[in-house]
């Protein structure tokens, strides 16, 4: 005698199986995405830029690298004033190199200034040296001259955000933990190359306020 499973029970089992398969496939794709980004980091770090992984729990609006209506960084101490391009993908060499040849880059998946008022990290990176079409593109050439308490100002979409320099680190290109959107207190991180292309100079600024 062949026992037949009730129709409702069959549908329930089929639905649960489908959900499990979808979950397994999504996790597989997520791991594949991570491995692709990691592969991109190696190329990126060796090309004088920034690397890092997106935390999967954070999803920020993104529509490709673009210039905000106003996004400028100023550090009076070192005579720096430069346009910033937001949401630059650090795993896309064609994208970030195109930006760094004329501007400072804001790292994709890190916070924008208006998203890092109570917590979070705004991450910017730029060339320490270099030339493009006869123009000097070493916009961060004097970052090593910044001293404790020096101010960095970011003008973003009508507001002015003020940060004060706290500390710096020199790290290996493989140390990507500094590239993060997370911080319990609001802050700004700047990155450029050190010792040619063999190291990275990282500057940390604390958020003071905005108007």
Find the count of extended strands (DSSP E, 2+ residues).
10
Tell me the overall shape. Answer: globular
Order of strands side by side in the largest beta sheet?
A: 1-2-3-4-9-10-8-7
The number of helical elements comes to: 2
Main sheet characteristics: 8 strands, mixed, barrel
Q: How far apart are the first and last residues' alpha carbons, in Å?
A: 80 Å
Query: What percent of residues are in strands?
Result: 25-35%
For the record, what is the CATH homologous superfamily label of one domain?
A: Sortase
Order of helices and strands: HEEHEEEEEEEE
Low-pLDDT residue spans: 9-64
CATH architecture designation of one domain: Beta Barrel
CATH topology of one domain: Sortase, Chain: A
Task: Determine the structural class based on helices, strands and strand pairing.
Answer: alpha+beta
Quaternary organization: single chain
Per CATH, the class of one domain reads Mainly Beta
């Amino acid at each position: 005698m062949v026992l037949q499973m009730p129709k409702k029970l069959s549908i329930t089992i089929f639905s649960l199986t489908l959900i499990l398969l979808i979950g397994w496939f999504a996790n597989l794709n997520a791991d594949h995405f991570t491995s692709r980004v990691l592969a991109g980091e190696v190329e990126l770090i060796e090309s004088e830029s920034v690397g890092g992984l997106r935390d999967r729990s954070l999803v920020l609006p993104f529509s490709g690298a673009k210039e905000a209506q106003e996004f400028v960084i100023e550090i009076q101490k070192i005579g720096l004033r430069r346009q910033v391009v937001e949401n630059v993908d650090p795993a896309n060499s064609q994208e970030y190199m195109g930006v760094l040849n004329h501007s400072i880059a804001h790292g994709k998946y890190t916070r924008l200034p208006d998203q890092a008022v109570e917590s979070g990290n705004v991450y910017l990176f730029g060339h320490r040296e270099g030339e493009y079409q006869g123009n000097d593109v070493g916009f961060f050439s004097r970052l090593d001259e910044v001293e404790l308490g020096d101010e960095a100002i970011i003008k973003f979409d009508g507001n002015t955000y003020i940060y004060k320099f706290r500390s710096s680190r020199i790290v290996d290109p493989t140390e990507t933990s500094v590239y993060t959107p997370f911080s319990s207190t609001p802050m700004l991180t700047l990155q450029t190359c050190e010792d040619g292309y063999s190291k990275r100079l990282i500057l940390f600024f604390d958020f003071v306020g905005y108007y």
